[in-house]
What does this fold into?
Amino acid sequence: STKRSLLLLPGDGIGPEVMRQVRRVIDWYARKRGIEFQVEEGLVGGCSYDAHGTPLTDETMARALAVDAVLLAAVGGPKWDNLGFDKRPEAGLLRLRKEMELFANLRPAKVFDALVDASTLKPDVVRGLDIMIVRELTGGIYFGEPRGISDLPNGERRGINTQVYDTHEIHRVARVAFELARKRSNKVCSSEKGNVMESGLLWRQEVIALHKAEYQDVELSHMLADAAAMQLVRNPKQFDVIVTDNLFGDILSDEASMLTGSIGMLPSASLGATDADGKRKALYEPVHGSAPDIAGRDLANPIAMFLSFAMALRWSFDLQAEADILEQAVENVLSTGLRTGDIMQPGMARVSTSVMADSILREM
Amino acid sequence: STKRSLLLLPGDGIGPEVMRQVRRVIDWYARKRGIEFQVEEGLVGGCSYDAHGTPLTDETMARALAVDAVLLAAVGGPKWDNLGFDKRPEAGLLRLRKEMELFANLRPAKVFDALVDASTLKPDVVRGLDIMIVRELTGGIYFGEPRGISDLPNGERRGINTQVYDTHEIHRVARVAFELARKRSNKVCSSEKGNVMESGLLWRQEVIALHKAEYQDVELSHMLADAAAMQLVRNPKQFDVIVTDNLFGDILSDEASMLTGSIGMLPSASLGATDADGKRKALYEPVHGSAPDIAGRDLANPIAMFLSFAMALRWSFDLQAEADILEQAVENVLSTGLRTGDIMQPGMARVSTSVMADSILREM
Ligand SMILES: CC(C)[C@H](C(=O)O)[C@@H](O)C(=O)O
Ligand SMILES: CC(C)[C@H](C(=O)O)[C@@H](O)C(=O)O
It folds into this structure.
């Protein structure tokens, strides 16, 4: 049997308890479907800082580069809030993205029929919502130089960050968006602030050029990032695939995920380039954070972590039918009325992390 | 009688027709209340480009610097979309902000009781919503150098923008936020991405320093900009005053304005420093844009423009009771059921721009 390799990075807060449940799902595939994974575990974030003085060791970084796919749960917590920039839990995540060259972050904002009422938006506005945000993840203001805080002669301080995008960085992420759109409703909306930022104007021009050269069959539109923030609230169903830069993608995808009312349900994939062997580096993680307030109490929703593994089955291992099994089991369990606290609704049955996981496994 | 001077800049699209209505309001104050304004008009945006080849002439810029307050309606339209960076309608607006040093942009997101149902959010989530976003307006990535698009030796192009903030730029806008909060619910939430941007970290540190030195009576919290984009959808009523930088302010204030379901109602004020004579430069404008699709058809909602003038009465002329008259007239007319198309609801009476203005004037 082919050996498929996975690195699990549980991280902080509720990370370890949702990762524990996904291990059971991984075992299920070996036991019931003969699909085996070679699984290793490592530290990232605050727990790595506590153990090694750094949010990601070189050794773990090397293992992340060697495996077929990384599953990460969540990093961060108030305990590490006052560390310096390079020691913070987030720095471990940013290093993984950068060194694995995960330039395309796919963040679906999907409303589950059973959870329409969990949204703060009116049911008509969000029922059936299914947006895919493709966020550039290794460039822009997150990584541009010069950057830093310096002392000025007048006694003040100055903070600087730099947004930089080159042609190929824009093309490769736009390509992912166009390819995805072809498998969905065939529409891409590209978002920037090209009316005030030259880097945004270049973004728009390069997306237009690529579209013209290779993707004329896909419907392309452009929307300023402020207008997109409005339209996500006004009429989110107008969107299919949105492609945008690292910073706007951070904000717009969080806004979009909250439209669903259940970010405890949403997975994400971060993908690199496809190499000569047809392989691409990839990291899968829930959209939600480490939720330190409920950590260790068996209260967290494990579904986003499960669906992140389903994305791994699809994107890293081309196991489409196997991914369907897991996703369908999640939908079925939701329709029986089981809910973790974050998606609890009147008349439903409130269950723990482990009971939710038990039920999904039984359903599989 | 004191002469109060106003420069009206109708701009493009629906700008001229809403400005025409506000002139009637200005006349009303002279006729009925003996409050006279010396009114001049000028061009900004696409109309200025058509007439003079630039979106703002030096002469109009000089007049804007000389008057007590500027009222601007809206700029832009598809006709000018393909002009170079410095010729575009937006460039006129950015020049006004920069040369008048309007560093604090006040954008209220307020839900009118009569219009609760116009929101795409559930009534319970937005009823009574009253947020004030204070956006830094003359710094950050909108104006930082270096910037531009350049050709690279490898045949690609590179787009660059720079985010820069100095201590005093952060302090002066945070001061406006703290002062405002004292007159409201006494809470300020400062928003940045200090977890990935040093300029955001400096922002947070400087807001904390100013709070400690001068505003300990105000409740201060901090929220990452992505989390703020989420919380505005999840639970917007948790906010009172939000203070943030130019770019995040652009996006978050647009998102917040759309929560109200009626951006045709929302005014804004952009304020400079108070000088030795107690005067401050100021520009007032609706949050909505130039809406070229309905321009010239007497369909636009004039209320945001009226309420922008009410903000001018308050902030530039200290005429609080006079501002109350105008604001109250707007609320009264809404409660009689008159609606322009943008805020139309079942069972209400749809009226034109001029009929809406007539009714508000009659009510005054
Ligand atoms: C944790 C943080 C560095 C990160 C980001 O800003 O990219 C997070 O908000 C995300 O969206 O994955
Ligand atoms: C027109 C544009 C330059 C402007 C901005 O980005 O600041 C607008 O979106 C605003 O919010 O006033």
